[in-house]
Design a protein that fits this description.
Growth Hormone, Chain: A; 73% helix; globular
Length: 529
């Protein structure tokens, strides 16, 4: 088959879907599993930490983390993630994904284990140690965002690329479910052996002494999935696109890809040199901004706006759980029972609302397309959040608890069958190989900046349960989603096209198409349609 594109790239684009593609999804997705597991289980852990370390007998109320401490325990990992995305995204383009891919996992394993340790007994030291290691855990997790997305996009064929990248991100949904499941299981095991009395019966021993082991075990178990995939991650070769285009070694690219995928590839030194010469422009150049500037603004702005809403959604859980009757009043139960009930509620919501949305995206992204799914998701989230904001005091009543629960679940569903998935997929496809990892890192870091707006800003309006403030917060989130809807028009549809066609790297191909208005005989199917 004649083609103006490099054979190694054409072979990757047209390769049939194989078992190795599925393996790559699991290996690449473990970072997102760990990310979601950590960010979700800290919610149940923070409640337990409050009862263990911040109980004040004078208040006659269960201990609770002070607002600034709670914000930092939950939010410091987001700061680490943002930093890690920028650092590892840049390193991925400079050194290659394979060289730094294992480092992110090692960092995750060490910091997840250390999160369960303390260098002292006082609450200041315990919280300080936890925040320190959660920052570096976030740093490792942040590195996984651009590296995993880039690796999956460069391995996949053009027909199923979107579904595979979305499947990597859907491992986040699996992590959310497991966060609830593990927290629920560990707390239940301890309850069966060390159950304490309710707080209103015995204020001191309602917080079981053994509970201090529970939060540590739950956090440390987050190291397990990363540890299990380390060996397989180290066995992955560098992607064919990076080896061929950036390192200029088409022969090695052919050898590497031939080992893991059932395809035959020929090395083409002369054609590679021309291809590489046409794509030497750096990120901070006028040519990049002329070609991809609007796309980068689009991916960064949509991810920023999405994460303000997505992370803020988690803040309403403390309101929805009591409304639905899933969680008892804190004074009527022990510390471990409160953790068990909160974990159970989180597990149910994640399984029924959050988890299905990810997989709807996986199954429909190649049929509907990224652009339409993102527009639909932003619009539906805006509608449901506006309804919750306008009718919040009405929905909080017991008579309408299931309506509230349904609206709440639908915002999660359309976040994941919508921009939460597509804002991850699009930056992995829109940009050239030379800067793909960096551009994805910039977009993801912009998202984490939005998450920080949620953790340190929007959360101030929801923590005290003030109905008027919560309504304001929900209307603000509905507004940010509509801006996200508008910013989506800055990006383009990538469905069914090769990465080089999308990014404009295959200049020879584009020039040929412009010069000729009719297909050359025998060349109609060039692997691009």
């Amino acid at each position: 088959m004649a083609s103006n594109n490099l054979t190694v790239l054409n072979a990757l684009d047209t390769a049939r879907t194989q078992w190795y593609h599925v393996t790559a999804v699991i290996i690449a997705g473990m970072g997102f599993f760990t990310d979601a597991y950590d960010l979700f289980c800290i919610t149940t852990v923070s409640k337990l930490l409050g009862r263990l370390y911040y109980y004040d007998p004078a208040t006659h109320a269960p201990g609770k983390l002070p607002h600034p401490v709670n914000n930092w325990v939950v939010g410091v990992a987001l700061v680490g993630t943002l930093t890690g995305q920028l650092v590892f995204g840049w390193l991925g383009d400079k050194l290659g994904q394979k060289k730094v891919y294992g480092l992110t996992l090692i960092l995750m394993v060490i910091c997840a284990l250390c999160s369960g340790l303390s260098f002292g007994y006082s609450k200041k030291i315990v919280m300080g140690t936890l925040c320190f290691f959660r920052f570096w855990l976030g740093f490792g997790i942040g590195g996984d965002y651009p590296l995993s997305a880039t690796i999956m996009s460069e391995y996949a064929n053009k027909r199923t690329r979107g579904a595979f990248i979305a499947a990597v991100f859907a491992m986040q949904g699996v992590g959310i479910v497991f966060a609830g499941l593990v927290s629920m299981t560990v707390s239940k095991i301890f309850l069966m052996n060390y159950a304490g009395k309710a707080f209103n019966v015995d204020e001191v021993f309602s917080t079981e002494p053994e509970a201090d082991y529970v939060w540590r075990i739950v956090l440390m178990l987050g190291a397990l999935p990363a540890l299990l995939t380390y060996y397989w991650r180290m066995k992955m070769p560098e992607t064919g696109r990076y080896t061929a285009i950036i390192e200029g070694n088409a022969k090695q690219a052919a050898l590497d890809m031939g080992k893991v995928l059932d395809i035959e590839i020929q090395a083409e030194g002369e054609k590679l040199a021309k291809f590489k010469a046409a794509n030497e422009y750096p990120l901070l150049s006028n040519e990049f901004f002329m070609r991809h500037g609007l796309h980068l603004i689009g991916t960064m702005s949509t991810w920023f706006l999405l994460d303000i809403a997505f992370y803020s959604q988690n803040l309403t859980q403390k309101d929805i759980f009591p409304t639905m009757g899933l969680v008892s009043d804190a004074k009527s139960i022990s510390a471990l029972m409160e953790m068990f009930e909160t974990s159970r509620a989180m597990f149910v919501i994640a399984l029924l609302g959050t988890f299905p949305g990810y997989w709807f995206t996986v199954f429909f992204i190649e049929k509907i397309g990224r652009f339409k799914i993102q527009l639909m998701g932003f619009f539906m989230m805006s509608v449901f959040m506006a309804i919750i904001g306008i009718k919040y005091d009405y929905l909080k009543t017991k008579d309408h608890k299931w309506t509230f629960a349904a609206l709440y679940g639908l915002t999660f569903f359309f976040a994941n069958f919508g921009p939460n998935s597509t804002t991850f997929v699009l930056p992995a496809e829109l940009f050239p190989t030379r800067v793909r990892s960096t551009c994805h890192a910039l977009s993801a870091a912009s998202g984490k900046a939005g998450a920080m707006v949620s953790a340190f800003g929007v959360q101030q309006y929801t923590q005290d349960g003030n109905i008027h403030k919560i309504k304001k917060a929900m209307m603000f989130l509905a507004f940010t989603n509509m801006i996200g809807f508008c910013c989506t028009f800055l990006v383009t549809e990538t469905k069914g096209r090769s990465l080089e066609e999308i990014s404009g790297e295959d200049e020879q191909k584009n020039e040929t198409q412009m010069k000729s208005t009719r297909p050359v005989s025998g060349h109609q199917d060039d692997g691009w349609d």
